[in-house]
Amino acid sequence: MRVQIAIIGAGPAGLLLGQLLHGAGISAVIIEQRSQEYVLGRIRAGVLEQGTVELMDIAGVGGRMHREGLVHDGTELCFKGERHRIDFHKLVGKTVMIYGQTELTRDLMDARRALGLPTVYEAANVAVHDFDTAHPRVTYEKDGLAHEVQCDFIAGCDGFHGVCRASVPTDALHTYERVYPFGWLGILSDTPPVSDELIYVNHERGFALCSQRSTTRSRYYVQCPLDDKVENWSDERFWDELRLRLDREAAERLVTGPSIEKSIAPLRSFVAEPLRFGRLLLAGDAGHIVPPTGAKGLNLAASDVRFLWQALEDHYRGNQTALEHYSERCLARIWKAERFSWWMTSLLHRFPDNGDFGRKIQEAELEYLVHSEAASTSLAENYVGLPFGE
Ligand code: FAS
Ligand code: PHB
């Protein structure tokens, strides 16, 4: 097979890039190691920045998102048993969209299928070759048969554990990493959300987050030890622990029910530099990871894709500037999101080594944050997504 772009990975980054390239008349194939059902079964992000919403509209797949997504004007911070609202719309004139990553991925998969665009699921032994030449190749096996794709560029959208970044010579890559000493235990339930907007909780027992997927489906998280096991958590134990971390009003309002998904995710900050190696370009989790506290992971993937789509479109029009600056443009935005995600995580979680002093500093910062318009505005402009030009 020969295409202009070989995209590795059918997560949000790969699918969104494929849709945008199609709109620009650029041929691409997506090669994914898992089945569609497996990809859709992963329960992940829930908050879309306006930039991501706009990109879905440009890609022509925003219809259901606008019909079923929930627009939120703000969020709440809960500490010392009290909730404080941060009003995004009043402070920075922007909002966020609550629409699960699963639904966004489903919309992109459905659109790709309807257009009959080439997508290989359950590809085995995917490998990338010769990306330091003008003739990169991808090989894979499907149903026991070997296949090869010749292309102009390879888009590495294969996530943190993918093959693309792993194929780059280690001396060509510099990585930065911080692993956090706790995880998030998440539960999905068909119960009405406890509040109209999200609630981020700083509590002596640990962080908690009340999120949602719709008016009838909720997503909750509690901070748990890194070595904890999901088998240790019955639904009842989860609900009891969540209640202990909520303010009184939310604890009384909480509607519990059977979990339809329950899992523990580790938290890390990670960045690989640069993001381009000849004809291989990394986008999304393949190049960086953020702790989900700032709701940035999916949105960063979308902003990388925006830059990559523009760079590839310009390349085929004979202008190489955006391609030559792809990595630095992405990284300028990535590092600001990494900082915000690290800051939100540091502010809201219990760190084993922080001690009483660390706890008092967190409380002082939260008090300052909710009583200073300047501090609240800073949180708001980062949470809704910084402008692309910056
Ligand atoms: P993805 O990892 O989504 O997709 C990569 C794709 O590449 C996968 O389908 C994978 O199967 C495929 N792949 C991997 N190796 C391959 C190979 N060798 N060959 C072919 N295909 C290969 N973000 C938030 O904003 N909020 C959250 O609450 C949140 N929660 C998360 C919870 C968990 C457990 C995880 C892991 C991440 C979470 N994230 C969250 C971040 C997440 O949403 C990512 O940012 C988002 O999925 C990034 O999308 P992609 O870059 O497309 O990577
Ligand atoms: C989610 O709904 O899964 C979610 C929302 C906001 C976050 C993290 C996760 O910061």
UniProtKB/TrEMBL annotation:
The keyword Metal-binding does not apply. Its EC number is 1.14.13.2. It is an enzyme of class 1 (oxidoreductase). One of its GO terms (biological process) is benzoate catabolic process. GO terms for molecular function: 4-hydroxybenzoate 3-monooxygenase activity; FAD binding. The keyword Iron does not apply. Transmembrane segments: none annotated. Residues 3-341 form the FAD-binding domain. It holds the Pfam family FAD_binding_3. NCBIfam families: pbenz_hydroxyl (TIGR02360), PRK08243.1 (NF006091). This is 4-hydroxybenzoate 3-monooxygenase. It comes from Verticiella sediminum. The lineage of its organism: Bacteria, Pseudomonadati, Pseudomonadota, Betaproteobacteria, Burkholderiales.
